[in-house]
Specification:
Strand content: 25-35%
CATH architecture of the domain at 31-109: Roll
Low-confidence stretches: none
Shape: globular
Helix content: 10-25%
CATH class of the domain at 31-109: Alpha Beta
Number of strands: 8
Structural class: alpha+beta
Amino acid sequence: MTRPIAFAPRDSVEAVEEGLTLAPRFGADGLMPCVTVDAVSGAVLMLGWMDEAALRLTLNTGEAHYWSRSRRAIWRKGAVSGLTQRVVEARIDDDQDALLLRVAVSGSGASCHVGYRSCFYRRIEADGALAFVETDKLFDPKTAYGDLPNPTQL
């Protein structure tokens, strides 16, 4: 078992921006945005949110955990569908208030509860209409989630 990750105090701008200690800053709501990308292709898979506990779980277990704003609870990505995200690399931005995860997704490689590889499967056209950039689903949400009322919360 790895040693739990410790967070440092935010002593100075210099320490936060140029130092070698992790001193994350969460918003007034206790959350931090997390962009998740495929470790191999770099494709954006999703945008999630983490609170301090979700970040600690992610760093200590090597599997992505997020904060569900709708359920107000931590969830491990893929806990129901089996499409877990193994963290290959975790990065934090300059002022340590946003995360970037590079992940390997198990199973079909999908990260979207709708069945697509990425949650960003549609493009906004100039006229405001949406156009699909991913046309094939990688898994059937009904099979993965059954009759759960709102799989977005998983």
